[in-house]
Write a structure and sequence with these properties.
about 25% strand, about 190 residues, about 35% helix, Rossmann fold, eight-stranded mixed beta sheet, globular, alpha/beta
Amino acid sequence: MKSSNYAVYIVESPHSDDFLAGRAEGRTLSQILDLGGILNQYRLAINRDALHKAIELSVHDVKLRRSETQKRWIPILHISCHGDASGLELSNGDRVEWSELGELLKLFYDQKIAADFAVLYLSMSACEGIHAFRADVENGKSPFVSIVGPLTEVGWAEALVAYSVYYYNLILGRLRTPPPLAVVMS
């Protein structure tokens, strides 16, 4: 596989019925990316505090990689959970509105670390995840340059296959850059 500056940070927050049924789209995606030699990290976020920590750890990892390699890392934040047009639902039932997610994503935009990576790509593996565009922050300063996600409800298998192909093509250079707003499946 060719060298890449991409790193996929997977944050998953499934419901208890997903746990019981053995559904873990994020964990399975991580294993597929491992097989393809694509750098990734998987984190389980069962509540709001864990979501905050998972995003903080992702930002820290990008900074660390940058300092160790002197390469400009391009982080892809992949969030896998239940959602709708107004926001996300975490494992414990907490709701995270798009505006709150936008505040969390400011960590990627912080001026002190903005030079550590070029951009943030956001992938929302959640029903109606494309509505994450509402997480855009004020003053026209967005923490992400691209959002990929479904427009409507999406099945676990459908999302897993779509994102596996998307990352493989993006990171291997078959897809030059992701579009600013893309519907992976509808």
